Amino acid sequence: MPVKIPDNLPAAEILSAENIFVMSETRAAHQDIRPMKVLILNLMPNKIETETQLLRLLGNTPLQVDVDLLRIHDKESRHTSLDHMNTFYRDFEDVRHKNYDGLIITGAPLGQLDFEDVTYWDHIREIIDWSQQHVTSVLFLCWAAHAGLYHLYGLKRELLKTKRSGVFVHRRSCDHHPLLRGFDDEFFAPHSRYAEIPVASLHAHPALKVLAESDEAGAYLVLSRDNRNLFVIGHPEYQKSTLSDEYHRDLNAGINPDVPKNYFRNDDPTQAPVARWHGHGSLLVSNWLNYYVYQLTPYDLSDMSAITPWEASKGADC
Q1: What is the rounded CA–CA span in Å between residue 286 and residue 61?
Q2: Distance between CA 190 and CA 260 in Å, rounded?
Q3: Is the Cα dihedral 268, 272, 273, 275 positive or negative?
Q4: What are 170-211's pLDDT values in tens digits?
Q5: Paired residues of 231 in beta bridges
Q6: Is 249 part of any known ligand binding site?
């Protein structure tokens, strides 16, 4: 949350130069506050598990967040009951007329398919296009991040020889960026995917900025320069057991997967996993909600034209 200070306090200029958000008494006196409206498009097979993971992160903020759950189609799921889907999820036709402060699009187990071969690819494109006019900020996770970068910016991913699974060390590519506020110079994050977009291609794109990356796992946080789209090429929402569950699922399916790196104690899958990313994941979502949703969104969601860049351009250059 921002710090409220006197209008002309000298510290204001110093803190602003470091991208630490401060609010003048004058601005604070004229602020209206309401709950943040966040839509989650859940593409993962186990809907309830993913809902819980994301709501855990969204709940770790002092902001009040109202959540709507969105499904991509009304077909029956093998992993989630139809009763659950019909009770808690909305179809796109139910929300297309609405505006939201934030949208989260989850990953999906589609890593080895071309985007055009995904049965609901046209629906994904439609929702992404809709979001650019109806949502203040969009958070894309893993497969959705690659899908968004492809659809919005024409960046093609490359399939990996083996699945990239594990917990990897990342470093900040920017100093004093609002999304990275409170981050250590190095931090851990989980990955579970079959493809990557070369870091050099992301750095070279004029509409994007890479905020965090890994020598071993590649790009992790990529932000559009208009601050509207945040691409998280990993899984900060994963709970401690998720990579283990995926590993044993693949073993039972006869896929013979590699052991997730830096995850099980002593890299031994017979031992318990070690969670190293929960603090960073909570901080990332809190920073996103505060700096790129709450501080940008209009009070009246019917007027999306009122969205303005965070302090015009702060944090835009790395």
Answers
A1: 6
A2: 9
A3: negative
A4: 999 988 899 999 999 999 999 999 999 999 999 999 999 999
A5: 140, 222
A6: yes
Distance CA 96, CA 258 (A): 42
The 10 Å Cβ neighbour count of residue 136 is 26
CB burial readout 106-126, b (16+ within 10 A) else e:
bbbebbeeebeebeebeebbe
- Cα 187–chain centre separation: 16
Whether residue 237 lies in the annotated active site:
yes
pLDDT bracket for residue 18 (50, 70, 90): low
What are the residue boundaries of the structural domains of the chain, listed by start? Answer: 32-159+171-239+277-306
Our CA angle for 224, 229, 230, nearest 5°, is 90
Q: How far apart are CA 231 and CA 221, in angstroms?
A: 6
Is residue 235 among the annotated active site residues?
yes
Catalytic residue among 146, 205, 235, 280: 235
- pLDDT tens digits for range 79-106: 788 888 888 899 999 999 999 999 999 9
pTM surpassing 0.85?
Answer: yes
Is residue 158 part of the annotated active site? The answer reads no
For residue 308, pLDDT over 60 is answered with no
Vertex 121: Cα angle to 142 and 249 (nearest 5): 50
Structure tokens at 13: 């200029």
User: What's the residue count for the chain?
Assistant: 318
Fold topology of 32-159+171-239+277-306: Rossmann fold (3.40.50)
Q: Each residue of 263-291: pLDDT tens digit? A: 999 999 999 999 999 999 999 999 999 99
Among candidate residues 49, 142, 146, 170, the one labeled active-site is 142
Asked whether the beta carbons of 136 and 293 are under 8 A apart, the reply is yes
CA 113 to centroid of chain Cα atoms = 21
CB 55, CB 33: distance < 8 Å: no
Residue 156 assigned as binding residue: no
* Active-site choice (205, 213, 237, 280): 237
Paired residues of 13 in beta bridges: none
Contact 2, 295 (CB under 8 A): yes
